[in-house]
Every structure is written in structure tokens, then in C-alpha cells.
Amino acid sequence: MDTHYRLTHRMNTAPLKGEVSVLFCGKGEPVSGHFIGPAVHDYYLIHIVTGGDGVFETLGEKHHCRAGDVFVIFPDLLVKYEASEVTPWSYVWVGFSGAIVEKALEAIGITPERSVIRNCELERLEPIFDSMFSSLEMTEHPAAANMEASGWLRLLLAKLALHIQGNGILSSAPKSFSYRQIDHVIRLLSLQYSQPLSIGAIAESLGYHRAHLSKLFKETTGLSPKQYLHKVRMKKAEELLEGELTIAQIAASTGYNDPLFFTKQFHKWSGMSPTDYRREKQSGKGEDRVQGDSGV
């Protein structure tokens, strides 16, 4: 069954690791009631609603969006978005990543709890998006395409920043105390994954029973705290295995005192041993292990 009346997208074949890079972008007109999620993404994703309406759900809040509204999806947060049954929205989207993205977005007023920007001027945003989309058609020059698309992304974010500062019309629904606490736990696990963290101790420090914290955490991210921590550690291990550290050093760097236990955990995660994973990556023949969707 068709899920879109119209759907086109472009991929960036040469994103730079660590830099602010466009991963893909696209245009779509979903059918009535079409939805994505609940799901968790590994990248940032901006949707610009160009017509119709729908609902974006994040951090336990529902945001009704219409033409001119923009919603931003943050990594590792459970989200859902659904087209109206009566007047389904059309939108354009761009997925991107980069080590400084979170701070850059926060600097212009976009955070997980303030991720909907209202009443944007489409005549200012759509031409920028179209230029970004066209950049990724330069398939014979992937490095140049990446640079140009990333430049258009920065300009798009600059236009959103000016709109926010000039109008002050971000979605105003405050995040509940519970979800602020979960956001704190997410940041703690993401930054201190190399330490011997205790989920029970974290819950106690926040005044929660472990079971209650796990319930709230899973409602937000789709994973239990233990599963989330495991994912963070394994993702970091994949990154470190592309370097020169020994397996024992990587184990210690990702919170495992026992290299053998780390090896078993990594094998369960990736389907191969750390040594084989490194060999495959270094051979240049490994399959891309980044999971995600095209943001439609």
C-alpha cells in the first residue's frame, strides 16, 4: 500500500565524521493518517511543514503542526509524527549529524523540550531547502556536494535562529519535572558511560524507585536505562575500533573491566568479535552499520 502521494529524497554519500553534515533530505506528501514511530533516531531531523497538518509527539507532549511550522527531532528520544486524516500534511526534511550540533541548536533556542518552531515564513525557508536538495545531486563530486549541502543547512538554521529571536514563538509547552529528570539521566549515561554506573544508584539520587525510573525512561527513549547504556557503550566501541587502541584499552574506555566480557557483549551486539569488526572496517569492505530511515 502506498504511504505517500509524492516522495523524493537525496542521500549524502560523503558526510564528514564529527563535522556538521547533511545525511539526507527529501520532500513528501504522505497519505491520510500516515505515521512514523514511535521510534528513536540516531541523528537530528528537521521537518518543515509546507501544507496541511499533523501531530508531532515527543517527551510526552503532542504538538499539532500546520503549514509554516517546523519540528526538530533529537537523537535517542522516542518520537512519533502522524499526518491528519482529513488534511494530511506535506513537508520537506533534512537529517544531519555532528559533534557540535546539540550545542549549536541550544545556542539558537532549539532544545528537546522546545523543538517546535511556529509560523515560519516558507518563502524564506523553501528556497534554501531546494538549494540543499540540489547540492546532493552532484553525485560525481561527493565531497563538494557535502560541503555545499552543509553550507545550506547552516543557512537554514540561521534563518530559524533569526525567526526565533525576532518572534519568540517556539512551542511553549513546558516539559514535566519527570521528563526533565529523564533528560538528566540520558545526558549522564551518554557522558559517563566509561564509569561503573549503577542504575539503582542513579534512581535513588533522583528520588525514584528503580522500576519507576525505568518505566519513565523507556516511555521517553524506547529503551530501558540498562539497554540505553549498553547501546552508548557499543556505539563508542565501534568508533574506537576504527583507531589503534588495543581491545583491552577499548574495553576499559567503554566501562568494561574484563576484556573477555566486553568481547562477548560486542559479539552479541554486532555479530562478530571486536577483532573481526576492526579487520572488516580496515579492509574497507565492511557494510555500513549505521541504522536509520530516510526520515519520511
In words, what does this structure look like?
With 296 residues, the chain is α+β, with helices and mostly antiparallel strands. It has 2 domains: 4-167, Jelly Rolls; 177-283, Orthogonal Bundle (Arc Repressor Mutant, subunit A), CATH 1.10.10.60. Helix content is 43%, strand content 21%. It has helices spanning 101-107, 122-135, 142-167, 177-191, 199-205, 210-221, 225-240, 247-253, 259-270, 274-283; strands spanning 4-11, 21-30, 35-39, 44-51, 53-58, 61-66, 70-73, 79-83, 90-97, 116-117. Strands 1-2-9-4-7-10 form a 6-stranded antiparallel beta sheet, covered by helices on one side. It has a 4-stranded antiparallel beta sheet with strand order 3-8-5-6, with no helix packed on it. Helix 2 (122-135) packs antiparallel against helix 3, helix 4 (177-191) crosses helix 6 (210-221) and helix 4 runs parallel beside helix 7. The longest helix has 26 residues, at 142-167. The two termini are 15 Å apart. 34% of the residues are buried.
